[in-house]
Amino acid sequence: MKKNIHTRFESRGKVESGKKKERRKSLGRFAGFFMIIAALLSIVVMFSSSYIQTKHLLNERNRLSKETAAQVMEKTLSDIASDAEAKVNAGTSLSGFTQGKFTENEILDTMKTSFSGNDVYSNVYFGTQSGKLYALNSLSEKVDPRTQDWYRGAMSDTSSVYWTKPAYDESTGQYYSIVSGAVSNSSNQRGVLALRVEYDKVEAAIGPLNVGKKGTITMISKQGAVMGTKSCDTKEMYKKGQDISSSDVYKKIKAAKGTKGTLKVSGIKGVSEIYYNKGGANSQAWAFAFVPQNDLSAELGKLATTSLIVSIVMVVLVVLASMFVIKAVEIMLGGFTEAFNRGKDGYLERINTDDFGNSLQAKVAKMAVEPRKDRSELNEMSLAYNEMIDSISALTESVKSSAVKTAKNAEKLRETSEQTASAVDEVSQTITDVASVTENQARETVHGDEQMKELSRIANELAKDVDVLDAVSTQTASLNQQNMATMTEVSTNWDSSQEQTERLVNEMQNLSDSIQNITQVISVINEVARQTNLLALNASIEAASAGDSGKGFAVVAQEIRKLAVRSKESTNQIAGIIEEIKQKSDRLSDEVEISKEVGKRQTQLIDSAIKSTEAVYKNTEQLISTSERIKNGNDSLNEIETKVSESLDKISASTEENAAGTEQVSANAEEVSASMSELAVAISELSDTADELAEHSKRFK
């Protein structure tokens, strides 16, 4: 097999060499291009971040160097001031100054003994109230100490030391200050001890310090005079002794509330901010430092140049690596392409990495695409391709075997189709007979449906009559019920009337008895009136017998007699009226008795009418109940008729469907017969196709 593969490689190579090769897109070139782009992006990101970080570190370095230089300068100034003040305070207590009187020898001896050999101060002075001035080192001219600022300052405040303003000595080119303190001796003499402090030591302390690459550290007095400066650049910004009290830098430092910090300034070319330090309360000078904005230009330029060189080297290495990768990828993909082309020609062969060659790229390609598990995706893809080739080979053999079997089965199907065609003809005849029977059944179903419709019409008419009867019965029952209610109310009212009549009869009887009693009372009154009349007559007789004394009594008796007569007349009238009332009462009592008898008869008639009405109501209720049962029976009959009609309709529809179905089946049988003929043709074609498939499968080797 390998020999055949090499032969095909050689023949394909000859064909391709004879043609003009077309340039094609390669995945290896794409991978190499991607590697170069990724490397360039990585380089740009790496050096950009490095540049930014380095710039930040350099700025931080410059900031720290400014702060350090200013702090060192102020620390040196503070140390010098502290040493000088301590020396003055100690000197004002020396016995050579405080015991006895001030003498030249004692003062000079004390000064030489106590103040010689010190580099903090350059000279020592002692001035007296008499105007004498003694110095440790000789003076160039004679000076009255009382005219000096250091003497007057110490005398004005004897409790503390006094500092003069920094002054510039043109002969030495240095700034100095004089610190002094008052001295008193046992003889009550007063003097002033003073030390001349030079600031050259401060400049010496900041000499080794650098503020960035081009920065400057400057010491100024509180009055704005430059006492010392150091610049890392060849061109100094300030000169010693220069007055900068009118500059923006001095004004802002003086106005600053803090003892140290950063200030935005103007007036210095290329500088936007400074760092200042004012020191402590006893500091005689201030320090400030700054770095120009172009301080980092040289360093950043070198960094950029170095980064560019490194980038070029890395790009070259990446390009070489990309070319190597491109070649290796082309070899790997070429192996896959060759395998696919062989498969296209019908040669089902596995991938073989031995044909890749012996170059370094070929060895890398072999490692990348060697068919193995548990490695890269390409290794697994090669293994999967080989397994696919094995499966396709097995499938091809199976197809060959299946093609032979298909040809045999096609022959069997041809015989089966012929038998099926004969059976279809028999089924067609049977279906024709079934269709005839179904047609007769359909006619019978239609006749039954017509009879059910006639029955439904009669039932509907009966239902209408029952509805009319039900309505009339309901109305009659309602009227009977109203009549019964009316008769009951009449009976109740009549009974009430009879009771009232009975009570009237009783009252009439009571009235008759009362009239009889009144008659008896009137008889008694008449008897009393008669006797009263007799008594009055007797009284008149007795009064007449009495003469004049009985005249008054006679008048009374006469009046009593008149009253008796009037009473009798009234009782007679009352008796007549009562007699008339009694007669009318008797007649009314007779009429009431007659009315009572008539009422009893009327009551009997009303009771009879109520009983008749109740009987009619009960009969009407029975009639309504019977009508309801007839109506329910008619509804049931309608439901049965509806169900029977629906059943007949379904039977009719089913019969029609059966008829149509038999026709359809008959038609289908004919179609099946035709299809069987077509199936026979198709089986013949299938047999030919199976033979052709077997022939094609022989192409795969």
UniProtKB/TrEMBL annotation:
<keyword id="KW-1133">Transmembrane helix</keyword>
<dbReference type="InterPro" id="IPR033479">
    <property type="entry name" value="dCache_1"/>
</dbReference>
<feature type="transmembrane region" description="Helical">
    <location>
        <begin position="30"/>
        <end position="52"/>
    </location>
</feature>
<dbReference type="GO" id="GO:0005886">
    <property type="term" value="C:plasma membrane"/>
</dbReference>
<dbReference type="GO" id="GO:0006935">
    <property type="term" value="P:chemotaxis"/>
</dbReference>
<protein>
    <submittedName>
        <fullName>Chemotaxis protein</fullName>
    </submittedName>
</protein>
<feature type="compositionally biased region" description="Basic and acidic residues">
    <location>
        <begin position="7"/>
        <end position="19"/>
    </location>
</feature>
<dbReference type="InterPro" id="IPR004089">
    <property type="entry name" value="MCPsignal_dom"/>
</dbReference>
<feature type="region of interest" description="Disordered">
    <location>
        <begin position="1"/>
        <end position="21"/>
    </location>
</feature>
<keyword id="KW-0812">Transmembrane</keyword>
<feature type="domain" description="Methyl-accepting transducer">
    <location>
        <begin position="416"/>
        <end position="673"/>
    </location>
</feature>
<keyword id="KW-0145">Chemotaxis</keyword>
<feature type="transmembrane region" description="Helical">
    <location>
        <begin position="303"/>
        <end position="326"/>
    </location>
</feature>
<keyword id="KW-1003">Cell membrane</keyword>
<dbReference type="Pfam" id="PF00015">
    <property type="entry name" value="MCPsignal"/>
</dbReference>
<dbReference type="GO" id="GO:0007165">
    <property type="term" value="P:signal transduction"/>
</dbReference>
<keyword id="KW-0472">Membrane</keyword>
<keyword id="KW-0807">Transducer</keyword>
<dbReference type="Pfam" id="PF02743">
    <property type="entry name" value="dCache_1"/>
</dbReference>
